[in-house]
């Protein structure tokens, strides 16, 4: 009996060892990737989905999503502390114009779901003249959006208003409702609160805004050159996540809320608002629009002359998406 028991133990131990070794080998085969996320925003929902549903693992990647502000994200990409990042296109372009080597690989969102919000008593753009308007940071996407909206309304953002840094979305929204600023560019879920409070939407980017490079997957050119398989796998995971996003609304809302740290079901109405807006900005075929990059360069040229004659195509590395398109992979996913 002791011999039989020993044999059984040996067999069980051997089987367990084999399983552990197999798991360890599988884990070792996965490529580690540190991916920066510049905000707890719905703009990065496809990355959340790829992580939460196992799509990164499916494509052989062990991706660590790291929350880090936009400015440090750009610096970390340049230094190699991050391999890839989900970050607004304007910061990548501003850095690339200076020769950093950062490149846009895909557009997770090709339009901005912003609205220019003003107090209930403000009915005309002329009422903004001489007032303060708030942005998160100079050079950021909301700053770019604010200036675009003001110009579309017939105002000069450099003369007619005073653009100030008013903090993050929640801080800007509070500043607007408390009268510290007279306009802010806000995206969902704050737009729902704005509706309930009777604030005015003076400009709607989903309806009237330009096609631009809002959310991106970006990386440094040297990393891309040295790790083409990782980039290819990363893009595949995101493309599949984009299709999931568009076809699995309840599941996507749960994942969004989890990563954005928004409690459900108490905030389900806000998350419905967020999903309905952001999913409209996402394409399962995440090609970068050179005209969108050109729009960012035009905005940047007012501050940096190097952007004036820059070629939009020089900041885009489209070879991987072209390959996935030509091989039929994208069409097989985006049905």
The secondary-structure element order is HEHHEHEHEEEHEHEHEHEHHHHHHH
**Form type:** globular
Largest sheet: 5 strands, mixed
Helical content class:
40-55%
Level-1 CATH class name of the largest domain? Alpha Beta
Number of domains: 2
* CATH superfamily placement of the largest domain: Periplasmic binding protein-like II
In words, what does this structure look like?
The structure is a single chain. With 335 residues, the protein is α/β, with parallel strands linked by helices. The chain folds into two domains: 29-111 and 213-333, Periplasmic binding protein-like II (D-Maltodextrin-Binding Protein, domain 2, 3-Layer(aba) Sandwich), CATH 3.40.190.10; 115-208, Periplasmic binding protein-like II (D-Maltodextrin-Binding Protein, domain 2), CATH 3.40.190. It has 16 helices and ten strands. The strands form two sheets. Strands 2-1-3-10-4 form a five-stranded mixed sheet, sandwiched between helices. A five-stranded mixed sheet has the order 7-6-8-5-9, sandwiched between helices. α5 crosses α14. The longest helix has 28 residues, at 2-29. It starts with a helix and ends with a helix. 46% of the residues are buried. The model is unreliable at 1-28 (pLDDT under 50).
């Amino acid at each position: 009996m002791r011999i039989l028991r020993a044999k059984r133990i040996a067999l069980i131990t051997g089987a367990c060892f084999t399983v552990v070794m197999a798991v360890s080998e599988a884990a070792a085969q996965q490529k580690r990737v540190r991916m920066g996320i510049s905000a707890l925003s719905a703009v990065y929902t496809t990355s959340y989905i790829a992580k939460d549903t196992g799509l990164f693992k499916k494509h052989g990647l062990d991706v660590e999503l790291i929350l880090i502000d936009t400015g440090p994200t750009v610096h970390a990409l340049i230094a190699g502390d991050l391999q890839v990042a989900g970050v607004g296109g304007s910061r990548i372009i501003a850095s690339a114009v200076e020769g950093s080597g950062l490149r846009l690989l895909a557009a997770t969102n090709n339009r901005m779901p912003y609205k220019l919000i003003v107090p209930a008593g403000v009915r005309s753009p002329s009422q903004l003249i001489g007032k303060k308007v708030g942005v998160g940071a100079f050079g950021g996407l909301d700053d770019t959006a604010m200036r675009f909206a003001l110009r579309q309304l017939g105002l000069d953002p450099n003369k007619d208003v005073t653009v100030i840094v008013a903090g993050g979305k929640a801080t800007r929204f509070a500043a607007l409702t408390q009268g510290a600023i007279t306009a802010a560019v806000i995206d969902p879920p704050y737009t729902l609160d704005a509706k309930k409070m009777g604030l005015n939407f003076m400009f709607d980017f989903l309806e009237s805004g330009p096609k631009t490079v809002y959310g991106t997957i970006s990386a440094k050119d040297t990393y891309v050159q040295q790790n083409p398989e990782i980039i290819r796998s990363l893009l595949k995971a995101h493309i599949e996540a984009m299709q999931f996003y568009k076809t699995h609304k309840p599941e996507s809302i749960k994942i969004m809320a989890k990563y954005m740290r928004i409690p459900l079901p108490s905030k389900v109405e806000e998350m419905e608002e967020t999903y309905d807006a952001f999913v409209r900005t996402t394409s399962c075929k995440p090609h970068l629009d050179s005209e969108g990059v050109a729009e960012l360069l035009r905005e940047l040229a007012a501050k940096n002359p190097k952007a004036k004659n820059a070629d939009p195509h020089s900041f885009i590395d489209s070879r991987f998406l072209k390959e996935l398109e030509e091989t039929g992979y994208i069409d097989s996913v985006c049905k």
